[in-house]
Amino acid sequence: MQDVLTDLMTTWNAGGTAGVGTVVRTFRSSPRPPGAAMVVAPDGTVGGSVSGGCVEGAVYELATDVIRTGSPVLQRYGFSDEDAFAVGLTCGGIIDIFVEAISRETFPELGEVAADIADHRPVAIATVIEHPDAGRTGRRLLIRPGSAQGTLGSARADDAVIDDARGLLAAGRTEVLSYGPDGQRRGEGMGVFVASYARQPRMLVFGAIDFAAAVAQQGSFLGYRVTVCDARPIFATSARFPTADEVVIDWPHRYLAAQIAAGAVDSRTVVCVLTHDPKFDVPLLEVALRAPEIGYVGAMGSRRTHDQRLARLREAGLTDEQLTRLASPIGLDLGGRTPEETAVSIAAEIIARRWGGHGASLTRTGGRIHHTTSANSELSDSLNRS
Fold it and tell me: Domain named XdhC- CoxI: which ranges (predicted)?
C-alpha cells in the first residue's frame, strides 16, 4: 500500500471510497512482490500496479465492483493458454490479490497509519483475507511495537496475530499467516495478510570520495536512506553528495558505534567502506564486523589491500567467522571501471546477497528468474504438491 498511499489518501481525505487491490501471495515467477498495490479512485483514475500490466484490467473491474458492493474479494490470477493474454500472467507466475473498499468508514485509522509511515514509525496492518465466516473477511488489526488497535473477531485470534505480526514487523517482512478459524496456530481456514511498514532500510557509505557519490545515488535509487560519513569536513559536504539523505562529519568507527548503540541499524542495513585508508577503515570494520545485526558489510580496495586489511583485523582479534561476513573487494565482477559502473556492481552484490542470487547471466542459468524468501518458497512448494 505504501506505493499508492498518496493517491489513496487523496480519496480518503475527500470522504470518498477507493478500491484497493493488494498482492498478498506470489508463486513461481511473479512481476510484483507481496504488498504491491493498485488503487482505483471514485472517478476511475488508477494509481500503482499489481502485475506490471498483465492483470491490471481485470483487477480494475474487480475493484470498481468492490467499491459498489463493499464486499472484499480474494482473487487468484495465473497463467493458462486461454487467458495468457487476457487476464493471466504471461510470465507463468501465480498471484493472489486481495481487493477491498477503503474509506473513512471502513478504515478510520488510515490517517494515523499514513502519519506513522511518513515519520518512519514502525506499524503493521494485519487483514483477514480469507475465513469460513465471510463477515470476518476484511477485518484488520493495527500493530505497533507497544500497542494494537482493532480486532479480527476474537481475543484468541487477536493475541496470536499480534504476537506473530510483531515478529514480522521487527524483521520488516510482509506475508500471509495461516491459522484456524479462531486463531488456532496449527489450524487452517483463516488467512491473515500482514503488511509491515518498518523504517526505511539504511545504507551507510564511509569515505567522501567520487565513488561514494555514485554509490549513494544507487542506494537512493534502491530505496535506502543514505548516509555519507567522513571525518574530513572539506570533503563531506551536501553539495558533493546531493542524493544522500544526510552527510555526517565524524570519525567513521565512532559514528557507526553510536548508531549501533542507538538501535539505528538492523538486518537490512548495508555498510559500504570506501575509504582506502587503514586508519579509517580498520577501526570501522572492527565495529561493523562485530555487529551481527548489520546485514551487509563491504569494503573497497585491491586484493593486496584486502589481504593487508584482513591481517590487521586478525591482529585486532576478529575471528574467521566474523571475517567471512566481509565482502571485499566490494561488488560483483562486472568489469566496470568508472565510479558509476563500480557503484552498479556494488548495488548488484547487495541485491544478490539479500535475495540469494549468484550474479550469473540469466542466459546461462535455468529455473526461476526471481529468487524468493523461504516463506514464499514453502508456499510455492505446497502449491506444486497440490
Answer: 12-78, 118-180
